[in-house]
Design a protein that fits this description.
With 266 residues, the protein is mainly alpha-helical. 76% of the residues lie in helices and 0% in strands.
Length: 266
């Protein structure tokens, strides 16, 4: 009996709940979707290399490339990180499925408009363009709801995992909320300017917040990945926790710096 007990892995090294059939299917679907989105981003980098054109601006091959890469990476990261969040497998499976579908909607709308050579966001020139812009805005709102739910779940009960993972997951989600808030601010101000007849100003208004949005978006991958990598070293649990805490502090400084720059440039 004693031998059997010792042979079991520590409980804290595993996700809180072993994924059931639905959670496992949702994980595979989300990871496959993430791979497809990432491949789409790489493909459009190739399109940009061949077709050329501006890298910046509302009409650019940059948008389907960067959004495909970013959504693919973020979806894969969240699929993994949410396995440490203490929530039921059925709820997690449903939210991951919604997250994957919403990610496809966002990247598909942006990619479609890039091939049509028109802006994807804040474009109200035609009824079709307005419909695409509104669909992207609604999709963005759904992302806020899903990721806020995961963030609240991470703070309601301590995430599982190796030393430092609880802090990494909580800090990652907290910083991710900054990315969502900055994205919502870009859309809100752009819509106001567009509806008051300042279309070009609407496109320019998003520039100051883009660095803040980009930096804060990927903390939910970087910090938990660091905690996981440290768990494979010979460092003590206390030193690993201190290292994750230091990395979190550095990441927060980067977010604050980009937020100050955004405030001064806005």
């Amino acid at each position: 009996m004693e031998t059997t007990r010792r042979s079991l892995p520590p409980r804290t090294e595993r996700p809180w709940a072993a994924p059931g059939p639905r959670a496992g299917t949702a994980e595979r679907l989300a990871l496959a979707t993430a791979a497809a989105l990432f491949a789409s981003g790489l493909f459009h980098l190739g399109v940009f290399a061949v077709a050329g054109g501006p890298w910046n601006g509302p009409v650019s091959w940059r948008k389907p490339a960067t959004f495909g890469l970013s959504f693919g990476l973020t979806l894969a990261a969240l699929t993994w990180v949410t396995s440490y969040v203490q929530t039921g497998p059925r709820v997690r499976a449903a939210l991951l499925a919604l997250l994957a579908a919403d990610s496809v909607l966002e990247v598909a709308g942006i990619t479609l408009q890039a091939w049509r050579k028109v802006p994807s966001h804040l474009d109200m020139e035609t009824p079709f363009d307005s419909a695409v812009s509104m669909a992207l805005a609604v999709g963005g709102g759904l992302l806020v709801v899903i990721l806020t739910w995961f963030a609240l779940a991470a703070f309601r009960r301590p995430p599982s995992g190796p030393a430092g993972m609880a802090l990494a997951v909580r800090a990652g989600f907290a910083i991710l909320l900054v990315a969502l808030a900055s994205g919502a601010a870009m859309i809100a101000r752009g819509v106001v300017l567009t509806r008051t007849g300042h279309q070009l100003a609407a496109y320019d208004s998003t520039a100051p917040l883009k660095p803040l949005h980009g930096v804060s978006l990927h903390a939910v991958l970087v910090l938990p990945a660091l905690a996981r990598l440290l768990s494979r070293t010979r460092l003590s649990a206390a030193r690993r926790e201190r290292t994750v805490a230091a990395a979190t502090g550095c990441y927060l400084l980067a977010v604050v710096a980009t937020a100050v720059w955004a405030a001064l440039s806005y």
